[in-house]
Amino acid sequence: MKLLALDTATEHMALALWDGSAVAEPGTHRLADGGAQSSAHLIPMLLAMLAERGLRLSDLDAIAVGQGPGAFTGLRTAISVAQGLAFGANKPVLLLDSLLLVAEAAHLEAPVASGSTVWVAMDARMDEIYAAAYAHDGHTWQTLAAPALMDAPSLNAAWQALPPACVAGSAAAAFGERLHTQGLLTVAGVTHRAQALLALACAAWQQGPKVAPEDAQPLYLRDKVAQTTAERLAQRLAKEQGAAP
């Protein structure tokens, strides 16, 4: 089994290659700056990883990609690259949950007890949050709450119904006291993201469906991906008025 995996759903670009080698060996995973950097550096970095291991695209069994939710441009970049490489090599695509990737990275950094609820909360900009809940049984992840787009009050209410043992992702830092994370374990879920990508790609090969490149589509939770200048101004004024005594 040989897999190439990529995720550019956040400001960190994660790349991974599985060729049967130990996870810690050089060339098996990389974490780099994402965002605007993704489109320029993604393909050269992927091809360099293959070259370092003496592999060609035709040697792969599949290409795994984080399908979201996440940044609009990042998702389009990752899916387009995965489709192009898979078409060229005549290989299937494995679609990965980008929020589950954060949960796995957090679990590698600060493992929680088996069966404990891990909520992922990623800053989605526009005063919203990408959120989902998972539990690890010691072998695989189970989805307890599917990825959704929420505001802070809605997520706090969801935590009342399904209390987290850990909150992973960028929203805790971005929203501060507006999210009720006091007393909870909070983990950014960045440091081990590339290793987590490798683990999820291997699990997807064993368990998940393999789709044709043309069927690989990003997971969008927001129809509107940007605000107008007037909308941004109105939102800023509303925040300022709300903070005024």
From TrEMBL:
Transmembrane keyword on record: no
EC number: 2.3.1.234
Keywords: Acyltransferase, Transferase
Pfam families per UniProt: TsaD
Alphabetized Gene3D superfamilies for the sequence: 3.30.420.40
Gcp-like domain ranges (all copies): 38-150
Transmembrane segments: none
Recorded GO MF terms: tRNA N(6)-L-threonylcarbamoyladenine synthase activity
Protein name per UniProt: tRNA (Adenosine(37)-N6)-threonylcarbamoyltransferase complex dimerization subunit type 1 TsaB
UniProt gene name: tsaB
